[in-house]
Amino acid sequence: MANTRSSTALDSLPQSDIAVSRPRSYDFSWLPPDRLLDDRLSATFGSRCIVGSAAAFLGGLGLGVAHGSKTAALRFRAENSHRFPTTSTGWYQYHKSKNYVCMFEGLKPGFKLGARLSAWAACFLYVEEAVDDARNKRDFFSTVVASLTVSGIFSVKNSFNMTTAARTARSGLYTGLIFGLLQDATALARGRRLSYVEFLKGKVGVVK
């Protein structure tokens, strides 16, 4: 009975309203057949670059604002240590002024650090994509190469000594390895074949 009433109600509606109420179907036929499968994280390079740079900018913005605000608070306290308020109204104005100073003083280092991290993230993604295109393969090796390359450029730019540069390269190696293997695990879960996985499967099959 309920189904009959619902169908009668739909029949009474104009055809335009019925068309709007139906779920949309999206057409991806304009993409190459294996494009969504082969791209890292099921996203094109442009999409990964935009999302990665934006995420790095937001992370740098948060860290920069937190550090800049803390530094500004300490500076404000030191500059006003000889004239602390003595009344509740004075303390209210003191903390209100300190909060304004911390907010504005924290934004500048926040934007600077966010822009810097965004540029480094874009550089990393560009090198990773370039290595992928050069090798015609998409796996963790390209991510490790990109991470080591960016860490090397970072060390040269900041004139690190050998010990600090080696520590930076080691951190880049671990980061690239973890991030690359996570991307490979995502690709395997989506059904994409990886050359080194197929090689290991062949070796295991020969041993058996």
Class by SSE composition:
mainly alpha
Shape: elongated
Number of strands: 0
Give the overall pLDDT as a whole number.
83
Could you list some keywords that capture this structure?
79% helix; mainly alpha; single chain
Helices and strands in order, then pairings?
Layout (H helix, E strand, L loop, with lengths): L1 H11 L2 H7 L13 H4 L6 H35 L8 H48 L4 H18 L4 H28 L5 H13 L1
Helix pairs in contact: 4-5, 5-6, 6-7
Structure explained in plain terms:
The model is unreliable at 17-23 and 30-34 (pLDDT under 50). The longest helix has 48 residues, at 88-135. The protein is mostly helical and 208 residues long. It has helices spanning 2-12, 15-21, 35-38, 45-79, 88-135, 140-157, 162-189, 195-207.
What's this, in brief?
With 208 residues, the protein is mainly α. The protein has eight helices and no strands.
